[in-house]
Amino acid sequence: MNQPKLPEVWLRGPVAGVTPLLQPVAHALLQAREEVSTYVADFPAERLWEKPARMASVGFHLMHLTGVLDRLFTYAQGQTLSADQLKALSQEGSEPFAGCTAEDLAGLFSKQVDKSLAQLRETNEQTLLEPRGVGRAQLPSTTLGLLFHAAEHTQRHVGQLLVTARIVRNMY
C-alpha cells in the first residue's frame, strides 16, 4: 500500500528539545537523513566508488556528509579536531571499508545526525554568537555560523549525491 507522503521536515513542527533559533539546522539535518536514505536504497555496492565524468563518487559524498558534520560540530564546541578526525578526513575520497555498501555509509551518516541533534539540544542559545576558530588557521566564525554552515553544507552534498547516484544508476 502507498503511504501518504509526509511534508518536508521543516513543515512538521519543531524538533523536540532544540532551541527555536536552531530549529532550521535540526530540520535540515533530518531532511538530509531522509533524502540520503531514499537515494541510496538498493544502490549497487560495486558502483559506490565510481566517478562519472570525474565527479565525486557516491561513497565520497556519504563519507563526507558524516565527516563534515563531525568536524563542524566539533568546531562549534570550541574544540580542535582529534587525530582520528584528521585521519577520517584524509580517507574521505578513498575506499576505507572493504565490502562497505551505500546503506552502511548512510547508516554512519544517520548516527552522526543523531549525535549532531543531541549536541543541538545541549547548545545554550546564549553561546550562539561566541567566536569559534575553524581549522588549523583558526579562521573566524561563531557557534551559530558553524552550525548553520553544517546544515547548508550537508544539504549541498545531499544534492550532489542525488545527481551522482542517478547518473551512476543509469550508466548501465
TrEMBL record:
Domain DinB-like stretches: 29-161
One Pfam entry name: DinB_2
Superkingdom of source: Bacteria
InterPro entries: DinB-like, DinB/YfiT-like
Protein name: DinB family protein
Species this protein is from: Rhodocytophaga rosea
